[in-house]
TrEMBL record:
Keywords: Membrane, Transmembrane, Transmembrane helix. It comes from the Bacteria. This is GtrA-like protein domain-containing protein. The chain crosses the membrane at residues 12-34, 46-66, 72-94.
């Protein structure tokens, strides 16, 4: 099993995945700087916080996957470096969750919308019965 991952690490697919992770990290860092420079409560802050939340978890999981592949292939330095990057991404992702963004309160809004859809049919049935 470890031989498969060692061969996978040398494939062009792994090189493409690595480049995609690096470019995603550059976008994440650019968004991070933009968010820090924007005024709180503005549309710019709202949009960058939303994009940071959307990109943060997927990027951290990609770096953790890369760390596991590198550790399995006996590249300890690269694996440790990827794990450290994932740690800092997750750490910042958890701190930005309290900010105002598109994702905040999304579950409550979806629940209310579903409730309003079902409430509309219940009120018609209750009105017809009474």
């Amino acid at each position: 099993m470890l031989e498969f991952w060692a061969q996978f690490r040398e494939s062009p697919l792994w090189t493409g995945i690595t480049w995609a992770m690096v470019l995603s990290y550059l976008v994440y860092f650019t968004l991070l700087v933009t968010y820090r420079m924007s005024v709180r409560g503005t549309r710019r802050s709202y949009m960058t916080a939303s994009m940071l939340n959307a990109l943060g978890l997927s990027l951290a999981s990609a770096y953790l996957f890369a760390a596991a592949i590198n550790m399995a292939g006996a590249r300890l330095f690269t694996g440790t470096f990827n794990a450290i990057i994932a740690y800092f991404i997750l750490r910042y992702w958890l701190t930005i969750k309290d900010e105002d963004n598109w994702w905040k309160g999304r579950g409550t809004k979806i629940r209310r919308w579903i409730r309003s859809l079902s409430a509309g049919t219940k009120t018609v049935a209750a009105g017809a019965a009474g």
